[in-house]
């Protein structure tokens, strides 16, 4: 074990300040080198027959699976992101203006809602929920309407009668960068904590006024937002074009990058990854040298074979395939092993850009459908750019029963609480969202239900429901910090981090966690301690050096100590910094 921080993840770059010119020149040169081969490959890209059946026959699906067309033009065109609402309807952000509107053209991009009303696995009803938009880059239903990433704004669109009635448009946040149309805010999704997450990419510089002061992000990263309080924070930063973000069963999030080469990226809160401007120490993803990936989904549920559950799907949009990874905990982090593809094709216009599990347990793929996929490397007006087609493909496992569609919207609160124990992530996630939207009225029944639960997984779902409702429940939290399953203990530590300003003794709750027997719990404790402005937080964090560490733990400890330096450095100078041994002191000074 090294007695100094492991800097094998660090990439040191010369720069003049956080966004210095040396760094930006390097980014431009690097992007040119990365994209040149793909641009050349598209010079002679053919224009295929747009018949969806021709494309379907070219799809090679993994053994034991089959694919059908869920929706295509004219039901929708050019889907950028898809997400389901809690009623089981599929929403799509669609843009026929991308990558740049023509001079004089009137913007008319759309938010479209697709429904399979007869349960045959094919959309038979489409509703244009909103039009007149300009390149909506992401959407997520919720709070009585839909959140939309639209240029410099995060919008909330709603209609008086659900999908009908006058359209109401509210600007929720404004000030996000617009330097590049495929880097603007995108990849919207709800987290297990009830907060809204969305991403931006490398060329974007955002400056947003909030009730808590301005929030800024230059370059790629993930935002975290609580709509009820308007609190906006940077969750993590440092990807080139992170068009994939998903949370697993235990609340750990993963990012994929549509312009990077690092594969799967488990997220450490507050960390900086390889494309962070001005940072000298950055984290790598799990698969350096992999192609660019877009979209991210983690599989679950009874419909899928057991060997596929917990696998991560992402799209190699340039390679015309949907890739699959097995995620395996290793030390304080994970490994991601590439498995056989879910789908691959030799059809030149098959461009999977998003992937989601549906309420029936099937897998849904948004197909941008275009022989030209790159943004600036091929002329914006190239006639081969397809601006009118798009598909949603649906993949099911042969010979396995589909999941009965959950009826959540009008369910009793007690039934929604029971749905928190469902095997499918989709059902639990949407049951939580419906409970969140019902607000404080569900709290009495939630308290009674939680008290009856013996399973730690059910109690974790209850904790996340309290968190989504923004109600602090310290007794339940304390019990889960002592759960038998280390993944639940790690999840509970993340809740301590979120609630630390409203807990009476957060340091006392976290100190034992930094000495936990499992390294993933210790990592989460170290990062949570970084949020508590107290010299004792640094002292507790250094306890992780008393047990074996790895590069991810040491990176996290170094980040926390740098964040807490205004508190422990003066204490050290005054002789008040209680380190256990010279190793801890040396690590702190080198952090």
Structure explained in plain terms:
There is one protein chain. The chain folds into 2 domains: 21-397, TolB, C-terminal domain (Neuraminidase); 472-590, Leucine-rich Repeat Variant (Alpha Horseshoe), CATH 1.25.10. Mean pLDDT is 93; it is low at 1-37. With 591 residues, it is an alpha+beta fold. The strands form 7 sheets. Strands 1, 20, 21, 22, 23 and 24 form a 6-stranded antiparallel beta sheet that branches. A 4-stranded antiparallel beta sheet has the order 2-27-26-25, with helices on one face. Strands 3-4-5-6 form a 4-stranded antiparallel beta sheet, with no helix packed on it.
**Tally of helical segments:** 14
| Percentage of β-strand residues | 25-35%
Total number of beta strands: 27
Helix % is: 10-25%
CATH fold-level assignment of the largest domain: Neuraminidase
Oligomer: single chain
Uncertain residue ranges:
1-37
The main β sheet shows up as: 6 strands, antiparallel
**Structural class of the helices, strands and pairings?**
alpha+beta
Mean pLDDT: 93
CATH class of the largest domain: Mainly Beta
What is the topological layout?
Layout: H1 21-41, H2 52-58, E1 59-61, E2 65-72, E3 79-84, E4 90-94, E5 109-115, E6 125-133, E7 136-142, E8 145-150, E9 153-161, E10 164-174, E11 186-190, E12 196-200, E13 205-208, E14 215-218, E15 221-226, E16 231-237, E17 244-247, E18 253-256, E19 265-266, E20 294-298, E21 312-316, E22 321-330, E23 333-338, E24 343-345, E25 352-357, E26 363-367, E27 391-397, H3 413-419, H4 425-438, H5 443-451, H6 456-468, H7 474-480, H8 486-499, H9 506-510, H10 519-529, H11 535-541, H12 551-563, H13 565-573, H14 582-590
